[in-house]
Amino acid sequence: MMSTAGTQTASPNERCFETAARGGRAARIAIVGGGPGGLTLARILHLNGFATTVFEQESDASARTQGGSLDLHPDGGQLALARAGLLEAFLQYARHEDQGMRAMEPTGKVLFDRVDAHGGDRPEIDRKLLRDLLLQSLPEGMVRWDRRLASVVPVDGGYTLRFENGAQETFDLVVGADGAWSRVRPLLSAVRPAYTGLTFIEIGIDDIDERYPALAATVGHGMLSVKDGERRLLAQRNGNGHVRIYVSLRLDEPELVDRHIDLTSPAAARRDLLQRFEGWSPQFLDLIRVCNDEIVARPIYALPADFVWSGRPGVTLIGDAAHVMSPAGGHGVNMAMLDAAELARHLVGNASADEAVHGYETEMFARIAPLAAEVARGWENHFKR
């Protein structure tokens, strides 16, 4: 069981956060989405005396695999965890040894090999472990499970959240932390993420150090990148000896993946992937040959780098709901957690929710636009034809 920092006591000022237009009572705050961003916001607000409710569509914390390894940046995820009183706990569980980066040619020649050996400032942590750390820092009952949002309806004095299981509740402030396909975003904009033209085929290997030590040595401690023209293979070290491997496909439409990779069976998918990398060194082909049976296509989507919305009282967005971008650079989770920390800072420092949201959004738009443009350029340059 993880240990987390003790709950801080909120000051009287922080406890009396109110929305002036709503009769002087404390604002009712809903956070839609129980990922790292939403949970970080809930944790920081909890420390400052705010009553919030997190709604998560999954049935419980173990309902599905949470995804790969995350590197938390000092000015992003780590800063947010410090404000949440959880940085020390994170550093205890983070993998400082897995910050390396290796680039190789398909022949096996090493082009670049950076081994941080505990010296980097962006330690890794599995997404599930980070989520568990945040969940265990919240009071029981703050996260409502099995709440898949069906609609958000403006009502007098707030917004009613209606869920597919029939439940509904009304709140003064609704924060969409519900990812790329946010159901809160349509309250603010009709813009939807666009397909980037790239789809990843994700595969994985369990217990690689014990079962396949030679392949473990090839991957190293961190990220391995191998490319040749349009053929790309990325391997990422995760915790507990697991490695996630991504094969990129450039497709005009994500639905065209079936023309290249037969996902009807693991054996067929391995066969097609191996054919795609014909002529590459056996060490890279073996990463495909011995992979697990779970093989998944993951199309990559992004919002425009300059995406903004006109403010609307009582609603805002954080994380991928606000600015989903390609995974290049590992900025997604860092920006989501920083969004949470900054929105919380504005809510704590303002007597009006609307003023707090306006201040947060103004600063967030200015912070995200240049980063999103840089990520988009780097993504296209790395995967260009």
- By CATH, the superfamily of the largest domain comes out as FAD/NAD(P)-binding domain
Arithmetic mean of pLDDT = 89
What is the helical fraction, as a range of percent?
A: 25-40%
Determine the CATH topology of the largest domain: FAD/NAD(P)-binding domain
Q: What proportion of the residues form beta strands (DSSP E)? A: 15-25%
Question: Which structural class is indicated by helix and strand composition?
Answer: alpha/beta
Taking Cα atoms only, what radius of gyration do you get, to the nearest Å? Answer: 22 Å
H and E order? HEHEEHHEEEHEEEEEEHHEEEHHEEHHH
The major pleated sheet works out as: 7 strands, mixed
The overall strand count is 17
How many individual domains? Answer: 2
- Distance from first to last alpha carbon: 47 Å
**Discrete helix count:** 12
Uncertain segments are 1-17, 19-24
**Architecture of the largest domain, CATH level 2?**
3-Layer(bba) Sandwich
CATH class of the largest domain: Alpha Beta
